[in-house]
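Data deposition worksheet. Section B asks for the primary sequence of the deposited chain exactly as it was used as input, without tags or linkers unless they were present during the calculation. Section C holds the resulting structure in token form. Section D is free text for depositor observations; keep each observation to a single sentence. Incomplete worksheets are returned to the depositor.
Section A, Depositor: J.P.
Section B:
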Amino acid sequence: MRIIVSAGGTGGHLYPALALVDYIKTQEPDAEFLFVGTTDRLESKVVPQLGYNYKGLHVKGLVGNPLQKAKNAMIFVKSLGASNKILKEFKPDIVIGFGGYPSASIVMQASRRHIPTMIHEQNSIIGLTNKILINRVDEIICCYEKALEAFPKEKTKLLGNPRASAVWNNDLKDVHDMYNIPKDKKVLVIVMGSLGSRSVNNIMIDAIKRMEHKDYHVLYVTGKDYYEEMKEAVGHVGDHIHLVPYIDDMPSVLSSSDVIVSRAGATTLAEMTSLGSVSIIVPSPYVVANHQEYNAEELANKGACVMVKEKDLNPSKLVGTIDSLMDNDEKRESLKKASKALGKPNACADIYKEIKALLARR
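Section C:
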């Protein structure tokens, strides 16, 4: 099988694509893959480093003032020719787009050439690129019921995010061992994405001081750019407070911590529900179409997380919400069960089956 995978712009699009490709390789070692993305974003560096064939398109998102949008639209039109060349040379059996503006050109041209196409939507709100491609593709895979309701029912399936499967393939460690925390102590993890959040960091300066005499341990991920200033601002408040700039093995931390305070990125929620993490979700209000809040709402409405909007967040509210879970084993267990019920640990296998079925129909 020869597969073109297009994803990029952000890790939220790229890493689910990589997880699916890694799974397909276990099922079909002879399968050939070509990634198509931008020439200058995350995927242009990460994918070649992993050893996959890569082609970069000169494309830009439709952002900025009207003049800039017009220029970017012309760049997109030119990318259609480059996409055609890629398709002629690689001759894929299927083209799969994982969203983000880099995938629009190659999926659109594959559809025009009657090559089987599939798109994957990670969020509850459909992204602009996938909106453009809805009526052009053969099959759509989504992760949330809200998205399922918005897509054409006859060609859409709710199968989840491939990252939900990827976390189970890891050799999961125990957060207590990773950070030298006594086994009899509960662990709270606070992480606002890999880059951190200045607005939440400002709240955390006071919140951490309020946790100075708590019986649980706190692992706070500041974000690499904020680490030094947060260490200075917080000072030493006890050996049970662990400030780190970044976590390399997030699945292990998610699987063995008692409570997670997190943003509502699609990959993060897919991993947490697959593992049954107990979470307090603070959706980022700084994302397109406020999609993180919609992601979190779907979990909160089913009792699978506690959601606190950032506009309502303050040190007292944060610590009070954390303590209400840390002190209530029954509530944590309820959240854990509801979270796991929403998880899609078989996402990769289910999507792979759909790829095979689509090719058989064509």
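Section D:
The first strand starts at residue 2 and ends at 6.
The mean pLDDT is 91.
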